[in-house]
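Question (not urgent): is this output format expected?
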Amino acid sequence: MTKLVISASARRDIAGALQHSGKRWGEKQRRHYRLLIENALGDLLDSPEPPASRARDEIRPGIRTFHIARRGQPARHLLVYRVAPDGDIQVIRLLHDAMDVSGALRDAD
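Got this back:
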């Protein structure tokens, strides 16, 4: 059975994004953003390489990005992940889509 393994860096990223969302747009939007993140993670469990994901081998072999936005539900974050040899999905970071992914991965757990 495929497992989702979320790194410490990704957990910090998620907490920070939710905290920012709550402070800037309120509790209702924070809850909505959390649901978008949870849905995107669930989508990866359903299909580790969904058509909307993007291979980012130019950064590191096996790295993929997956935007958390859904039709009619805008969002500005990407899940950065890889599929491990055992099939588990390793979420490395949650990054704002304006960030330099390769630079952010230098410090990832």
